[in-house]
Amino acid sequence: MFNLLNIKNIKYKFIIVLLLLIAIISKIALTINYNNTIKVSDIINCNTVYLTFDDGPSEEVTGKVLDVLKNHNVKATFFVIGQADFDVASIYKRINSEGHALGLHSYTHKPNLIYKTKENYINDFEKLRDFVTQSTGISPKICRMVGGSNSRLCSKKLREQILEYFDQKGYYCYDWDIDPKDCCAYALDQNSIANNIIRTSKNKPN
User: Fold this and answer.
1) Among candidate residues 177, 142, 178, 170, the one with its CA nearest the CA of residue 39
2) Within-domain flag for 132
3) Does some domain include residue 124?
4) Cα–Cα distance measured from residue 41 to residue 104, given in angstroms and rounded to the nearest whole number
5) At CB < 8 A and 24+ separation, what contacts does 160-166 make?
6) Is residue 140 reached through a cis peptide bond, with omega within 30 degrees of 0 on the bond before it?
7) N or C: which end of the chain has fewer CB within 10 A?
8) CA dist 122 to 35, 112, 158, 166, Å?
């Protein structure tokens, strides 16, 4: 849904996007089961939004995001990376302990490296999986490819090989279908972000 947590290029716009989404969503009831899959329950006559964040944790932002989510009793899914210059493991633990879902994204988040070969991708992915498991004691089975599964960052053949690997190993690969385009500019104004969300959401099924 979002490519938001670019560690070096994003600050408070992350919080702005989240607050706008909370204002748009009238009712979200997401609960996380012990297999780290998302269940939707008790939703009557309202739209459902799966709130997801990519490319983090961020030392500056993720804690603030978790505070906002907690204050509004909203659960989300964080597709995380592993390579960072701070203690990401502690944030993984907080994400998990506060009832959010952890998903696997990429250890390095370097498309030019991971999309060179199938082996490169799997090595990077499994390094992240092992790191998350060692850090939290859980082994997520949900994932999101860098750039999405239809990304031009990798060839069609490699994409098919990666998706086949996911299928064989029991991973569920998720993309997004609403993108506020906030990752395309350092300081995209909040009205533009909100309008992108609203415009894209209009034709989505309930």
Assistant:
1) 142
2) yes
3) yes
4) 24
5) 161/118, 162/118, 162/121, 162/122, 165/118, 165/121, 165/122
6) no
7) C
8) 22, 14, 11, 10
Query: Tell me, what amino acid is at 148?
Result: G
Establish if 85 belongs to a structural domain: yes
Count the domains in the chain: 1
Which token pair is 93? 């633990």
- Reading the chain (206 residues) residue by residue, the pLDDT tens digits are 433 333 344 444 444 444 445 444 433 333 333 344 333 344 345 567 889 999 999 999 899 999 999 999 999 999 999 999 999 999 999 999 999 999 999 999 999 999 999 999 999 999 999 999 999 999 999 999 999 999 899 999 999 999 999 999 999 999 998 888 777 656 678 788 888 888 888 877 65
User: Using CB atoms within 10 A of its CB, is residue 19 exposed (0-12), middle (13-18) or buried (19+)?
Assistant: middle
Task: Find the domain containing 115 and state its range.
Answer: 13-201
CATH of the domain at 146: 3.20.20.370
Establish if 135 belongs to a structural domain. yes
Query: Is-contact 40 30, C-beta < 8 A?
Result: yes
The two three-digit tokens of residue 189, written as one number:
């104004």
DSSP 14-56: HHHHHHHHHHH-S---EEE-TTS-EEE-S--SS-----EEEEE
pTM of model > 0.85: no
